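1st attempt posting a full record on here, be nice pls
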Amino acid sequence: MRTLYVYLTKQILATTVMTVAVFAFVLLLGNIMKEILALLVNGQASFLLVGKAFLLLVPFVLVFALPMGMLTATLLLFGRLSADQELTAMRSGGISLFSLTAPVLALSMLMSMLCAWINLDIAPYCRSTYKQLIRSVDVGRLTDLLQPGVPMTDIPDQFIQIEERKEVGEMVLLRGIRYVKFEKDIPVYDILAEGGTLEANESNNQLFLSMTNCTVFQRNLSDSKDFEPGKSELDESNWFLTKMSEYSPSVFTIDRDSTVFRKPKLHHMSFRQLQQEMKERQELADDLRALPSFDVENMRTELAANVRKPFDPITPVKVQMHRQIAFSYACFAFTLIGIPLGIRAHRRETSIGIAIALMLVAVYYGFVVLANALENHGEWAPHLIMWFPNFLFQAVGCVLFWRANKGM
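the predicted structure (as tokens):
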């Protein structure tokens, strides 16, 4: 058995290294051509920068290349063993399929542990550093800071959320705006606007926000000069309702070296950063729920008319946290389903194994894309969808594994 285990381990390791290298090269090439090649052609990037970017992208692409390579290697190895009747010879010695594949399954668990380390820490750090390296050459546009469903909270005493955006030349058209102004951590007014525009003065690092068809919920503070108190008092909390056709807050000045500009996106954060982001967003959600917009019935009507649903800052973070953990189990799930499929395919051709692997990868990552698309719809529990392909592949793999062991 020891000789057999050494043989299988060497075979699966050699094939895995080869397939991971191929997939990693393809993914690296795609990322470099998409983001680096244009900068290099325009003379904005040096070959040294391209080399640094290449190295920083390696851990990021390994997140995807390792499970895909492990799956392809499993299909190729067991397809060849089955086609050459080597599995039949091994089974004729009284060895069960589970005992025979134990070293491969153990290797897949080790690969899952390696993926977990890369997914939770190494890859997000390298991806974030890579983005900062790109920004050092191509600083990007200030208007990109405001994205649909992503809370903009890093400007002091401001909260901005939008539902949709559309770029028209240098101007960005917005729909479904919520803007909350704070003074000394006390909310002064809460604005719900049907639409608006966002423009930037890149040379002065300034953002200009304009909102139209505004419903303003204003605290009755004597030092507030932005609005005249409305005539409709909502409850005993001294909040008033005001309507405005147009309103523009003060100009936002952005420091390109500040956290608001350098802060990584959720899918570029490490697991620890996501935990900290979750804590901050939970505090933000608690503050927003304390506003009359969520407590007073009259304001609920105004909220529904302008913003389709209450802001949910928590679910997108949960989706990314579960994505990182669920991805770590992909190697084991792929191996468990790849072993019986490789035996059933009964082929030694590389093209068949790669074709089957690509189909399975498309199914697996299809659920991941679906979960990411639903990250602003907490009612669908998108963070749990991240786990569905793992459970599906493991369940199907166990059934096929049992049938393969019984039929041999």
